């Protein structure tokens, strides 16, 4: 009996101690929900940058934040993630990729939870030039004319050469980028052909056809392709067809791309201003970053591509 009584007292004491804290831990000032479309390097980096910067900015003001990070896995599940986050009444939602941003905007229309997007190419196109007042964020858009000219110059493309563009039709960002880069190539007489798919099981066949028919391959900032881009790299390298990606990565011989970690950091800095009450999403213009040029020297050597001295 003494042992049972002691155990009960210990439980009561523990419970009493926990009453003054959140889940027996330190009290947190803010809760931020993160909806990331899927796991792959670029999106992961953006989420990491967002978390790091937001924690740093709030720490300067003596504030703390906890994160509820959820990966949807596919576009149709983003709404489910957002509904979960809004039910928890988070203070802010970070939506990583366009499907996540659309779901977040729709899911917060009635409760006005601030939403910041990242890894989104064109906010105006996504929202038909009517961005909701509670939405802002950062864009991974890059100059398409400069990307096209970089490929033309570095590969020695001439009139009549074909560039294949591989993208998933479920991603609106990719369609936007395809149309933009297509226009730039065609100004120089380069033939552009789209190789599209809706299911990842189709990717291998699509890439094989593209590599057989094209002098070079262009991949926009397409999350679905990026998630399986080793398939693209393996097939194209075997066939000695150079791959250029808008987002960087190991499979491309060259790229003009942004740093996704830094993109996430900029989003985190914006989030801190909103949580601290200094600004609202409507106060922010969509922020873009200056891209940098990179060449994969080892891959260029394998493909016989001369890397510019500068």
Describe the structure in your own words.
The protein is α/β, with parallel strands linked by helices and 310 residues long. It has two domains: 28-140 and 259-279, Rossmann fold (3-Layer(aba) Sandwich), CATH 3.40.50.2300; 144-257 and 293-303, Rossmann fold, CATH 3.40.50.2300. The chain is built from twelve helices and twelve strands. The chain has helices spanning 2-18, 41-60, 78-87, 98-107, 123-126, 144-155, 172-187, 203-213, 223-227, 229-238, 260-275, 297-303, and strands at 30-36, 65-71, 92-96, 115-120, 135-139, 162-168, 191-197, 216-219, 243-245, 254-257, 287-288, 292-295. A six-stranded parallel β-sheet has the order 2-1-3-4-5-11, sandwiched between helices. The protein has a four-stranded parallel β-sheet with strand order 7-6-8-9, sandwiched between helices. Strand 3, helix 4 and strand 4 (115-120) form a beta-alpha-beta unit. Helix 3 packs across helix 4 and helix 8 runs parallel beside helix 10 (229-238). The longest helix is centred in the N-terminal third of the chain and has 20 residues, at 41-60. The model is unreliable at 1-23 (pLDDT under 50).
